[in-house]
Amino acid sequence: MISKRRGIIIGVALLAAGGVLALLFYKGRKPMVDWRETYEASSTAPYGTALFMELAKGYFNADSIQVLRDSIRGVLPVEAERGTYLFVGEAVYMDSADQEQLLKFVAAGNTAFVSSKSLPYQLGLRLYDTLCTQRQWGGYSYYEDSLAYTGFYPAPLQMDSALRCEYRTFGKLRPYHWSYLPDSLLCTEAEANGLEPIGGSPGYTHFARQPYGAGYFYLHTMPLALSNLSLVDSNGLAYVSRLFAFWDAAGPVYWDRYAQVPESSDFDFPLAERSLSDKSPLQYILSQPPLAWAWYLLLALGLLFLLFRSKRQQRIVPVLEPNRNTSLEFVRAIGRLAFLQNKHRQLALQQMRLLQQHIRERYHISLAEPNPVLAQQLSSRSGIALPHIERLLTYYRNIQSSPHLSGKALAEFHQLIYHFYQHSK
User: Domain range holding 397?
Assistant: First the structure.
C-alpha cells in the first residue's frame, strides 16, 4: 500500500509534469529565439545567414549556388571556372585531403572566401609558405569587447560609416572574442605576394587577400558581420554589396556547410559523421502532435522514475584500466631522435610552435605580436609567477634570433616549458 507521504510526492510530480506539458503546448506562447551561432543559410535567427544567402542569390545566379553538406574532396573542380568557394562559420574543419583540394581549386584561378574566427593551422602554414620573409604563421589574434566596427580600406569601396557589429544573447549585449589578423602577419609593400589588408578598423585588420597560384584567398575574421543581426539595416547591406565586388559573379558558388564546426572543437581528431538533413529526428517528432505527446509523456515518466529511483543504492562501478596514450610515446621518440642528431634549434622551434598555439587557444594571447605587457598578461591569466614568464619569453626571443642552440640551453628551455604546462591554470 502506498504511504501517505509517497502519495503526496507522486501527486506533486504529476501536477508538475502536467504543468510542463501545458506550457509546452500553449498556443499563445511566444516562440523561443535561437541565439546560437549556427550561420545556417536557411535560418532567420539572429546568427543565421538567411539574409546573406538571399543577397548572394541576387548577386550570383541563384541556380549556380551549391550548398555542400559533405566533404569537398572530389567536389571542388581543379580547373579554372571562375568559381567561388564560400565558407561562413565559427571555425573550419578540414583534413589534409580537403585542404589539398581547396588549394588546387584556388591555384587553378578560382576564389576562396573564408569567414571564420580561426583558420586550420596547417592550412595557414601552407598559405604562409609563400608570404613574407622572416615571418611565422601564428594564426589569428583576439580582443574582447561587446562591440566591433569594420569597413573597407580601398578608396572606391569605403563606406560612409563603419559597420557596427554587436554580440547579443537573449537580447543583451555580452563580451565577445573578436578575431583579427595581427600586424605581424601583414607583409610590407616591398614583399611580393604578401597578405594584403582590405578591411577592418583602426588597429585591427578583419579582411585580407592572399594570392595563391592563379587565384585568391580572402580571409575574413568576422563571420558575425554576415549574420542576420548585422544585416538588418542599410549599413549592413552596403557592407555586403562591397564585399561581393571582390568575387566573380559569372562562375558557380560552392557554399561549404560540411566544414563548419564550433570554435572550441578539437581539429586534431576526425569528427563524427555529419547529418545530411536540415531536420533532425527530434524535430520531426515534435512537429507531429501525437508523437510530441508521446515524447513528453516519456520524459515525464523518466523524471518520475529518476525521482523514486534516486534513493536506491547504485551498484559498484567497476574499475577500468585507463587507456594508454601512445601519441605521447611517439612525440618522445621523435624528440629523442632530433636530440641525438644535435638538431637542438629545430627541436626548440617545434616546442615554441606548440607553446604558441597552446597559449593562443587557451588564453587568447599571441606570442608573435609585439606587446610591452605580454609577460604581465600571460602571468595573470596562467597563474605562473611573473619572473618565470619573463625568463621563458627571454629564451623564446633568443632562440628565434640565434642560428644555433646548445644542448644545455635546450634542456633549460624544456624545463621552463614543462613547468609552465604543469602549473598553469
Answer: 326-423
Separation between Cα atoms, residue 226 and residue 241, nearest integer Å: 11
Bigger pLDDT: 61 or 99?
99
Question: Are residues 100 and 249 located together in one domain of the fold?
Answer: yes
pTM, entire model:
0.58
| Integer Cα distance of 227 and 55 in angstroms | 12
- We report the CATH number of the domain holding residue 156 as 3.40.50
Within a domain: 277: no
Task: Beginning with the edge strand found earlier in the chain, give each strand of the sheet holding 147-152 in spatial order.
Answer: 65-68, 253-256, 84-88, 111-115, 215-220, 204-212, 196-201, 147-152, 163-166
CB 203 within 8 A of CB 150: no
CA end-to-end distance (rounded Å), the chain: 55
User: Is 334 domain-assigned?
Assistant: yes
Whether 349 and 245 map to the same domain: the answer is no
Alpha-carbon distance values, 201 to 14, 150, 206, 247, 339 (Å): 57, 5, 8, 22, 45
The alpha carbon torsion through 261, 265, 271, 274 (nearest 10 deg) reads: -30
The total number of structural domains in the chain stands at 2
Instruction: Compute and round to an integer the Cα radius of gyration of the chain.
Output: 26
Dihedral sign of CA atoms 65, 67, 73, 75 in order: negative
**Angle of helix 374-382 versus helix 386-401 axis, rounded to 10:** 130
Nearest to 375 by CA among 385, 143, 184, 356: 385
pLDDT digits (tens, 9 = 90+) for 277-323: 445 677 767 767 778 888 888 888 888 777 776 665 567 778 887 77
Q: Which residues contact 399 (CB under 8 A, 6 or more apart)?
A: 345, 348, 349, 352, 405, 409, 413
Angle between helices 344-363 and 386-401 (to 10 degrees): 130
